[in-house]
Automatic annotation (TrEMBL), chains A, B:
Name of protein: Molybdopterin molybdenumtransferase
One GO molecular-function entry: molybdopterin molybdotransferase activity
Cofactor(s) of this protein: Mg(2+)
EC number: 2.10.1.1
Metabolic or biological pathway, per its Swiss-Prot or TrEMBL entry: Cofactor biosynthesis; molybdopterin biosynthesis
Record-level GO cellular component terms: cytosol
Keyword Transferase set for record: yes
Keywords: Magnesium, Metal-binding, Molybdenum, Molybdenum cofactor biosynthesis, Transferase
Lineage: Bacteria, Pseudomonadati, Deferribacterota, Deferribacteres, Deferribacterales
Highest taxon listed in the record's lineage: Bacteria
Length: 394, 394
């Protein structure tokens, strides 16, 4: 079962479905995804406020009698009449009756008598509701509560907020060749990297994941892992072994565990092995074992799908135009995602080939921040060519 | 003391200086900044590895005798000779003597005798050091340990890593008009927003900050805050009041506390009040009180400066070309940073004016992800114009 990349994405999206919602304290909401339309509960501003430090007054006179002082949050005289004036700070509520505020630097004050130049009604007063009226939509369902939206929730005085529940993700890695960095290195082995790739990106998006562990390549251990994880997690993600038919017990394991396999490979390079399987309430995503193949599948398919499953409306990485600073090699007739280092010069993105595109190589991901999308008709590119790149990090 | 924007940035950078370094466990290093040149400790791969599942052999014969099986991490026969073959898994070490690996699907096996088609030496073998040799630089000092680099450190088998120390930041907000969201709203007051703006962005960049609290607008409380914080933090950041000369005791406070004022305003809109002051070992950054003015200064000056102070080499937000989807208004003769909502269509960035650019308005930051940089010669733009935008979030 090989899926083309569009079908694979649709099947992934469909199998993960829509999350439920829950109400949480705004203080706990950083990184969550809004599940309601957020509206203002009052007019902004809710009173007429001074835009400057100066004298609130009714124009038409030369000199005024100073009645008092109002700060933002410090109460002063609530109204004025005739030739009265109140000194108001920036952000302070302008007293009733006043029609404008003269800047302090334009006025002369002596013995409580203030000389104010002529000005028009409305000057230097921020009107009630001028920013927005009560009931204005500030964010829609599907918005991430990021460093832009989070403080706005406080500005709005929201105490609780409806967000999407986080699907629970269980991770395991397979492979008898896997060491942990605390182990002594043995010739021909590799250090566990895939756990940290998954965790790093899941941390970026605030996913709720647990590391189940490192499962050895044998039937019983894999069946046990599936049995235990299926009841505990909404989504199970593995790396390596499983999807390769390596010891040829995989399909049998899926049958034993009641999983239906939706696809086993997709037409991309690197990393064509990507398995999607499902049973009621649990989706399994089997990812390839080579770190570069795992990362590519994560960026191209799995992260967008998980972000959608977490309720995010704008769930895909952006695809931007880039100018090639170097050549990059690819074969026509297949879809290749070449690792690239993107930089911005004078407003435009440029891309440099990361040096090697072999599936078994991985070190360049230390600085790779984009994947060139080279479709079936593109093939190799030379310096100066235009291309499209998935913008992973900026 | 008004600084132009270039001088202000230089003074900020200079006053924050370069951080010290420390050695930490790689497991604790996510989000930190590398302070050394990171090199590989061995060749990658360190043994000849099979690129496919298949038969390792010496070409030149038709049929071979199966000597055993080698998995990645499962030891099999260590060498072959003549007409011997070993079945090797993808990623497994190829036995000594073997010159190539034939794909299993191209061979026929019966009773331990394998028929292998003719092929050339080297085929399907990943050579020792082909990804990189021992001593290759994978990351340089100043690189952030992000979701790309973090897993690479594990791939490299690094247990400890030299990183920059994190300067300690203390935050306080001022203003008698500030309520917390647990308080009942009072007419004319505003909810504390600036604390959450600072915290949200500081979280994004992994800064080490503490919230000192909300300081009331009076001389004694401000002096006490400065005294206590100067000995505790490398950098003090405040919002509101202080830099406005509101109750006119600010300069006096700075004298009492032995701070030298470097500048009090910079030539940008919104948010010209930005104060930089210094005493030995402590830098004070006084930010404006309006949330929009605070955010603009944070994005334009303070975050890049702090990222540099944390050791980051690539410490500035990217500035990208955008096509205006709407008009945006600005005055020629001054530098304005207009709030915009950026989107990407067919590879290009487009910008829509956020609707209002008044300093006292803030709600649009819920979706603002870019600031249009409108310099002294630019003025207003109309739909279809090109502009430069600070890319805050993508």
């Amino acid at each position: 079962m090989i899926a083309d990349r569009h079908t694979a994405r649709e099947m992934l999206y469909a199998s993960l479905g829509k999350p439920e919602t829950e109400k949480i304290s705004v203080r706990e909401s950083y990184g969550r995804v809004v599940a309601e339309e957020l509206r203002t509960d009052r007019d902004y501003p809710d009173t007429r406020k001074s835009a400057v430090d100066g004298y609130a007054h009714i124009p038409g006179h030369d000199s005024y009698v100073l009645k008092g002082l109002t700060g933002a949050g410090r109460k002063g005289p609530e109204s004025i009449d005739g030739k009265e004036t109140v000194f108001v700070m920036t952000g302070a509520t302008v007293p009733d009756g006043a029609l404008c505020v003269a800047r302090v630097e334009d006025c002369v004050g002596r013995d409580g008598v203030i000389t104010i130049p002529d000005m028009s009604a409305g000057e230097n007063i921020n009107k009630v509701g001028e920013e927005c009226y009560k009931g204005t939509v500030v964010a829609t369902a599907g918005s991430v509560i990021h460093d832009g939206l989070f403080p706005v929730l406080f500005y709005l005085g929201k105490r609780e907020i409806e967000v999407f529940r986080k699907p629970k993700i269980g991770i395991f890695v397979t492979g008898d060749e896997i060491l942990e960095i605390e182990d002594d290195f043995k010739r021909g082995m590799v250090f566990n990297t895939n756990k940290y790739i998954l965790e790093s990106f899941f941390n970026r998006f605030g996913f709720d994941y647990e590391y189940y562990g490192h499962v050895k390549d044998n039937r019983d251990d894999v069946v046990r892992a599936f049995d235990e994880m299926s009841s505990k997690y909404d989504i199970i993600i593995s790396s390596g072994g499983i999807s390769m038919g390596k010891y040829d017990f995989v399909k049998d394991v899926f049958k034993t565990c009641d999983y239906e396999i939706l696809f086993e490979r997709t037409r991309i390079k690197p990393g064509s092995p990507l398995m999607l399987a499902k049973k009621s309430g649990c989706t399994f995503i089997g990812m390839p074992g080579y770190p570069a193949a795992l990362t590519t599948n994560l960026l191209f398919y799995v992260l967008p799908a998980l972000r959608k499953a977490y309720g995010e409306e704008d769930n895909e990485f952006k695809i931007v135009d880039v100018v090639m600073r170097t050549e990059t090699r690819a074969k026509e007739g297949r879809f290749e995602l070449n690792r690239a280092i993107l930089d911005v010069e004078d407003g435009r993105f440029y891309a440099s080939d990361a040096g090697t595109q072999k599936t078994s190589h991985y070190n360049s991901f230390a600085s790779v921040n984009g994947l060139l999308l080279l479709d079936e008709k593109t093939g190799s590119l030379v310096k100066g060519d235009m291309a499209k790149a998935l913008l992973v990090r900026v």
